[in-house]
User: What shape does this take?
Amino acid sequence: MSNPPSTPQRSNGDGGFNTPTPRRQSNFLSSQPDYPSSPIPYPSSVADTPRTPMRSSAGNRRSELGGSSFHNDDAASSPLQYPSTPMRGDIGSPRTPRTPFAYVRTPGNLNSMVGTPNVSAGHATAYPSSTGVDSQVSDPSISVRLIWGTTININEAMGSFRDFLASFTLQQRKTLSNEEIREEDNLPFYPRLLSQMRTTETFNMNLDCRNLLAYRRTKKLYDQLIKYPQEIIPLMDHTLTNYFLEQFDVDLNGQQLKIRPFNLDHSVNMRDLDPQNVDQLITVKGLLIRASPVIPDMKEAFFRCLICDYTTMVGVDRGRIIEPTKCPRAQCQSENSMSLIHNRCLFADKQICRLQETPDAIPDGQTPQTVSICLYDDLVDVAKPGDRLEITGIFRGVPVRVNPKQRTIKALFRTYLDVVHIKRSDQKRLAVDRTIIGANESVVSYDEGDEIHIVNTGEEEEIKALSKQPDVYDTLSRSLAPSIYELDDVKKGILLQLFGGTNKTFTKSGSPRYRGDINVLLVGDPGTSKSQLLHYVHKIAPRGIYTSGKGSSAVGLTAYITRDPDTKQLVLESGALVLSDGGVCCIDEFDKMSDATRSVLHEVMEQQTVSVAKAGIITTLNARTSICACANPIGSRWNKDLSVPANLDLPPPLLSRFDLLYLLLDKVDEDADRRLAQHLVSLYMEDNVLTAGINILPVEKLTKYISYARNTCHPVLGEDAARRLIDCYVELRKQGEDRSSSEKRVTATTRQLESMIRMSEAHARMRLSPTVEVSDVNEASRLLREAIKDYATDPKTGRIDMDLILSGTGSHDRHVKDDRARELKALLLNYESSSIGWTKLLNDFNEQSDVAIDTKAFEEAVEALQAQNVLKITGEGRRRLIRRLINSDETQF
Amino acid sequence: MPQSANMIHKPLVTLNTCFEEHIKSGHPPANFNASTILGDLLQAHDLQEIPSLNTTSHIALDPEILVTFRCMVQDTNLGPEIYLSINEVNDSSTGQKKLRSLKYRDADLADMDQFNEGRIPNEFLDERGVVYCISPPGESGWLKANDHSSIDQKLDNLSLNNQNESASDPQTKSKFPLPGVSHASAIVKLYGEDKNITVGSEIEIIGVLNRPSPSTTAAESGDADFDLPKPTFPNTPVVHALSVKTLKNKDAMVISQEDITNVRQQAKDIRAQLLEYLGNTFGGDMVVAEYVLLQLLSRVTSKRGVFALGQFSLNVTEFPTESIKSGTERDEAKKTLFTSANALTSKISSILRKILPTFVELPLSLDVLNTTSFYPRSTDENLLAGVLQLLDGTCVLVDETVLEEGTLKDQGVRNIQALNKVIQQQLLGYAYPFHEFDLSTDLGFIVVSRAKSMFPCHCMVPLNKSSTIPLQSLEDNDSLNISEQVLCNFRKYLHILKHTDYDIPESISQHIQQRFVESRKEASSQSQPLPTQDDLMLQLNLARLVSLSFGSSELTQELFDYTLNLEKTRSSRLEPTVAAHPQK
Assistant: This one.
């Protein structure tokens, strides 16, 4: 495409494909007279360091690429003053410092070039022009337009990028990744994007590197971008600006469009950054832990002569501004008269931050590492400490000086990242930063479970293989809390909770979102490893908070408002429920919670929000969390003769919000006991047991599996499954019909139906299946029945009765109560005097009945009658008197 | 032996020679690695000649000599750093260019021209790990003495110098788990694979000592207003490690095969002696002594999920208090925050310290709880040590008797939570910004308290109040003055049996299961509380320790019955008080 000029001198005028000439260049750079005439650096035999021109142009246009120093290192205290990028006033300076290693581009091919300074050949095989790199040094006359020390052919690179801009369509990428292709995807993407940028007047273009990779002609460019970002990015900037100017007739005022590349092929683990990565474009993920204030970084100093008012600008030279010692004006020449005028100097924003590894990237038993990052211009203050970020930038190393005033340096390099793009993986903040960075690329899909282990392709295969196994359900449930014996159904229920159903919103009907989270309550005797199960859930859940009911307050669970000690501003701090948004909130000692605390759970468990209205802040926070709670029965041991609500100190409305409620009872069962004993003894049999781990996934893998499923799989109900669901529900309801009596027990409510749907979805998700099938529904309905059988069985009748949970009393109980009240009324009417002593009445009532009536039941009956205006209670305690308000005749009516 | 003498006193010179040979023999210069040649240069007995930072302060040593340091990795956050490992210089005599190794040293390069004009291939750059190391916290005096024979003067030297040092470098103080205790510290630079050493592990290094140059820090700290300064340690020596050996808990003592057979043969005798010794310590209460002995033998054998199996925490209740009376004692007590105000616990500590390699006393006074931190936390990328950041296998004596009513501040609450977690799950949370990391620990706990402890210990033994010898008269007790030889036996006994492997034969396993099933049936018929999973686990754990204490690596019927009897004795003591079960 290009026509290599025979000599470098000719090259300027002899542009091949669309090579900008200095004149054209000045169109948009003209406002800056200091700019070099040719922004495109050609290998030049004129400059004594061949790369200098290139670097100079890089410095002009991309301040953040030229950035550098942190530690007051003189060699580089301005972004423009990156050692290899001289700044404006510095063009062509023969004394330009360099990065000591920036120009040795020999990734992966080390031993072949020991000690030879001219080592660029190691990389050059692919391109015929690359021979020019070597020969260029020896014989400058056979020059090709390559950037010195790299394999970049300028014309080729710019041409392919231009071509990419003009004709890339999203469809090209989406066919590769099997995404859904919409109609507009067939149109060239970037012209549309640029016109949007023009309207919004944003001058940074986020370049999704997947697009570069998907476009046939730019695959090589992508490669070069990774290896030589310092050279390629300015080229891209330049191409983009030109292209933009051609498309739209606007005056950019000398401004440059900037490329912000992101979505690189793979991200580097912070731990694995090594000398090989220096000066390459890399992506790292991490947590921002510290940020410096915004640093005004002087780029040009403005001096004025105190004698003659002559003014002059001085640029940064290797991190310093040299104050003119005498007035440059020939007529004045007075010494030491130049003084700095601060408000006319040029400054740029700069910020230094520290990025820490995210917890999931850290190997077991290690502590997190950190890396410094440098932010420039409009990236400053984009991220706040605490944000999870995906940073794309150039890895740098600068030598450390022994002393700022000396030239002696240490054999040690300070490393950091010059950031070109920030992607916030924190979903909650997504809305905020769209305006700042994500502006054009609204197509970027942010992973939902950002906190979750990233599955790489190898693991993905493994997970998929695992999901294909027929016994995946059993394997997974076995791997959950392997140290806890038996309790298979409980584990299965909890496993489904971890996977969760799909959340649905029906935007058309405007109805709120339907929760897909499954709530589980474990109730049982002490010593049945409830807390342990909870700990396991906490450990495995992608985002889990563990709290104890006894120690939590309502605000601790939801959100509280504090006043910032510095700014005196009100600050909303999230509590446990909000923090476990998108995960599982484990609450131990659920029954020991105060009523006020428990009441906040009503909203969370059905609406999945937390509303706060206090101290001037009225807001609703998302708390899309599943709740896994455990509670002890009243009197610490389960009373078999009482129903669940009577055994549990929990209000029925709350109880009904749990999809699954399991009873873990400590029964004496010889077989089970023996198996338990055997299991425990086997734990102690040998030190360092290995045997117990058969067919059990390690915790990390289980977590990865779950997060993978949660992220990628959103099952939809199939036709058959829907029909089966209806059948199951009807069947469950039918159980309540009793031929012998006319009364109807409620065996299932819509809440159970919803639970069933959620659990079928969770089961399908566990199989990584896109649709819910009949088998999923069967298992869900089985689990639900098991759970219902356990907890909603009325101990008095032995039949399932949902009313127990819904209202606290079963239908049988209700009948007994009514009977009791009727009998008491009859008894009351038999007395002659209209007032009777409390104790006497109780005794008489007891005599009449063949089963002993406890005080509580009696009290209930009396109160029921009082409500019917049959009687009136006066007095306190045992001295209460009961006055009859009706006569026997009246009842006749 | 001039070569090895040279190696010790001028290691860099020797290394340079080795490097030249290395190149001459045609190897790539980047492959130069001292750890492979170190063995050739040093004969075994030379190791004794190398000064140790554990016993000698770095101030007393010349820079750039070879030193050894047995230490705990406290902080791995200082690095890694990229450095220039090979440099090309012009040899002034021949005028030729020549490669020079910059590995294992902090080199200054006279001018930057090299960076400007010379070309430094990527392979000349290398990466090294930087970690902060401290001498093992809570290390007992006798173990230190094992390091070097002529310990006495050196020990004096150590305490004197270290106090000077810690006074001059405030940063290092907060990096040692036990506040106010003198210690040695160094920044260790690790080369090669060893850079992946984890926090909390014990390592032994041989390396080149380097003094830090103060000017470095001035340049590094820079403009504090704008910058994010990393922590600097201007007075801490730097050691470039030539060789690194990771030490396991097992290696804390040097044990020969002969010792092992001896100990296992004489286990019963030593056990009786040791029981008596411990019994005398606890006022003649043999039951408590027995449980303490079992505690000392416990360690984490395996981790399964949230469980740490094998570790056994003991709560000794009804423990009397005695305030420190005489003036001299008080002065001594004031020296560190970590000396209990209860004179009796201090005495027990001093005795346990005599027989254990690493031991820490943790008096839970409100002051300690509110002012110190039990867990390590990272502030400004500097990991400050917490009291519980200890080596695996350390025994911690938690003294609850000094705890009084009062306000527990935020720090105190966190401390108690951290301690709780370590006792319960053997996990210590490292507080990093925005996240906490749990790292496994293996710490033994003995909690002494007046009533039931607030920590969830595995089991609780009340001290017999009517014991034969009152605890108060401990100091006059002659039976506690025993010979060094016997003490040495005790140490070996504890150390060897602690790390002996153990298993349960199939027949006994059947027996245990049967017993458990029956005991549950029985309890259910008598409507007593049912024996739970936890009870069985405690029994099994104790059975393991009992077997080991008798020198047996296998559980037998008798040993299991012995364990059950022991448990019976214990629960009979508990009956008058509250529940026999550890709290949930």
User: Anything to note?
Assistant: Residues 811-830 of chain A form the longest helix (20 residues).
